[in-house]
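Q: Got a minute? One more chain.
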Amino acid sequence: MKIGIIGAMEEEVEQLKGNMAVASVVRKASMAFFEGALCGREAVVVKSGIGKVNAAVCTQILADVFRVDCIINTGIAGALGAEIRIGDIVVSTDAVQHDMDARAFGYPPGQIPRMDTLAFPADHALSALTAAVCRKVNPEIRVFQGRIVSGDRFIADQAVKRKIIDTFGGLCVEMEGAAIAQTAYLNRIPYVIIRAISDQADASAAADYPAFEKEAIKHCVNLTSALLARLDPFIISENA
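A: Always. Here it is, folded:
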């Protein structure tokens, strides 16, 4: 089994790379793919860069070049659910793009024309396992399972946040997850998105984000590392 691990920013993957026995570094599309052993598993760790296009390109390279068996996307996000606090973790059940709008052609918001689904489902067993592991390794925070909403926009406005909630539901909002989910779905690769909450996606977001970023990333790293050791019996690709 080979596991692809994607973080949008260097801060989200530097500790994982530091813990890795690196066998090779492959450079594709201006990205560095670190391949080797991590927590007893064969893995490829990569910084994709920010935004949906970077995330999709990165995921496709993991599929085509490295032929990964599953994908873990780790990072930070803004909270949508009122019950979710800074520091908590959201584990994906599915992901949707809030900035996809083809309503003029009769599609609901978020629906990509001529695709067979509005939201891209995470692997059920992998999502459940991730949440269970999080409760063990990060007992000081809470973990939620639900929809992750993505778009090429940093959400820092209460009115925009409310519109996203009313339209899509979802537990958190960020800028890469749904693109990774879509690419994994097209390639029939099981995936899960892990998001630690760094801000409330409102007027306080610009100030909260840098203040809580490091703590949020620490929780993600703890979870990702522990998850790797427990993956083998649980990977069930429901999209295959």
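A: The beta strands are 2-7, 21-28, 31-38, 41-47, 70-79, 89-97, 120-121, 143-150, 172-174, 191-199.
Q: Perfect, thanks.
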